[in-house]
Write a structure and sequence with these properties.
Elements (H helix, E strand, L loop, with lengths): L32 H26 L1
Length: 59
């Protein structure tokens, strides 16, 4: 039989099926959390107004 070297360790390839996603991607549209809260508030008020007064608008 051949001589076997027990001191060597077999390591997996460094790029074996791993996808890297970079954090340096920047978009031109950025929202602050306060902007999102204002948009949600406006949409909620519009939905409530349509719920209460929408029936009289359609008739």
């Amino acid at each position: 039989m051949g001589r076997r070297n027990n001191n060597r360790m077999s390591m997996p390839s460094t790029g074996a099926g791993i996808t890297r996603y970079f954090d340096d991607y920047h978009t031109s549209i950025e929202f602050k959390p306060a902007h999102i809260l204002v948009i949600i508030l406006i949409i909620t008020i519009a939905i409530l107004l349509l719920h209460y007064f929408g029936g009289s608008i359609i008739k």
